[in-house]
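Researcher: Structure for this, please.
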Amino acid sequence: MNPDDPTLNRDEVDLDTHRLTLAKITWQDPTSGDIHEFVLTEGATATIGRLKSNDICIPEEHVSRQHSVINYRDGIFVISDLGSSNGTFVNDEPITDEFPLASGDQIRLFVPILIFSSTVTEEDHRQAEEHGTLITATANTGGGKIIISNGPQEGNIIPLLLKKVTIGRATTNAQWEIALQDPSVSRPHARMQLVDDTWVVYDLGSANGTFVNGTQVHERGRALRDGDTIKFGQTLVLFRAG
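Model: Predicted structure, token format:
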């Protein structure tokens, strides 16, 4: 089947099979000496952390449960820290905002070091498929969830089951769908709403603001992409689409 055939029904094409393989993350387990390679395709989002639920699991004590995330943004891969306890460093420089990655960069999770490379062979791709370490873009189906990255609710995964959810501070009489145990979160704080299969976050006049990837959200709202970080008060969450 030729995807460039103008007579072809585009709905019948598996677009994921035509995505470019763009990057590779390599990590060597210091205990076993085993080398682990993760291959990222165009549009991929990869979470990194100690929990097995991460796309890239680094089971070391200095690594937070949800430590950092790599996103594909406007043709490049960028990395963000997810409020980790010990920080994320690129070439020994601590990162505080989205940081663009270049081939050969060293990503340090306090102690563990991962190597980012834009040189990926067909054999790398085949091996990643075989070992389940090929990370591809998430299809936008209108579904979604948020993963709390810090604070007393760290690691909690909250599926977005309704088309409109309100986020606010956890109180005894809280009436919002997502209650956060954070005194810096307002009552209520923000709203997430599904608009034409895209999740949008709106601030509801909160005292400490709502931020997406470090940029403040205003009343017009901000459309979300897979892998975006959202900060409600001091609580940082990771948005996952699909």
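Researcher: Any notable elements?
Model: The first strand starts at residue 21 and ends at 28. Residues 105 and 121 are 18 Å apart (CA to CA).
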